[in-house]
Amino acid sequence: MSDFIHFLNGKFVKEDELSISPWDLGFVRGYAVADFLVTHQQIPFKLSEHVDRLFKSAEIIGLQVPWTKTQIVGWANETLDKNDNKIEKTLKIVLSGGKSHSMHQSPVPTLVMMVSQYEPPAPSYYENGVKAIAVNYKRQYPEAKHTHYVEAIRQLSKAQDKDIDEVIYYDESQVFEGAGCNLFAVIDNKLVTTKSNIVEGITRNVLLEILRLDIPTEVRDFTFDELQSATEVFLTGSSKKVRGVIEINGKTVGDGKVGEVTKEASKQFESYIEKVASSTA
Question: Would the CA dihedral through 135, 137, 143, 148 be positive or negative?
Fold first, then answer.
């Protein structure tokens, strides 16, 4: 059993006390939103931005939140502080419609914050890149970070190549994102990332702000055919940071190795993390 302390509906609880009713709308109806962050030098990275996004996700799906952003930021900091301050941690915040015997929200939603140890991936995780599968699928309420991951889990469970570790969504009109991350691609010597119908990732937004590259960066929608012509592809997220994609649907991306633009983006992001963590320590 984990020794971590978590947050559940106003209380700080141990792992064996971290339970919700099976009548909770997040469990029985899939009606919930979530956000996820990590600490760097024991400082929660972009906590306010994550809470802002949590509220935006709740607003999009119509989930009523009786608390302020300041309250949730405070509870998040308290939850992290109640755990070992010598290790890096992850914090997953889940907000659901609460306990209900119908499809009406409870007057008070369920708010859970779960802590675990953050162990940065080994260097090979970034050096080797990742194989992905792309599926024709558009998430419902795509701008919201909700807890509906059925398609990703379904696709990964039936993948023949067990080295496949990521799912990319697209449809006839555009490429969207990864199942839990954003996507960048080098197309026609430009770094491109999707503009619409996506969750706006915190890591993605940081990169758009800080990246200084030898090629231009564009925020625009692009097709799956364009993605297949990309010389580099990488995915971004709180725990994966910047991870190169070397294969999509069995087709090699570029030369099948993590590219120089991806490496440079990763390097600049790591430098930014160190700078932010040092300035707030």
Answer: negative
> Does residue 212 share a domain with residue 94?
no
Phi-psi region of 98 (alpha: psi -120 to 50; beta: other; left: phi over 0): left
Closest by CA to 176, choosing from 193, 164, 159, is: 193
Whether this model's pTM surpasses 0.90: yes
Last residue of a domain, one of 117, 139, 170: 117
Adjacent-strand bridge partners of 24: 99
Asked if the model's pLDDT at residue 105 lies above 60, the reply is yes
What digits encode the pLDDT tens for the residues 152-206? 999 999 887 778 999 999 999 999 999 999 999 999 999 999 999 999 999 999 9
Distances in Å between the alpha carbon of 93 and those of 11, 74, 194? 14, 13, 25
3-class DSSP assignment, residue 172: coil
Q: How many CA atoms lie within 13 A of 276 on its CB side?
A: 16
Q: How far apart are CA 121 and CA 134, in angstroms?
A: 24
Domain closes at, from 97, 117, 137 = 117
CA 164, 169, 171, 176 torsion-angle sign:
negative
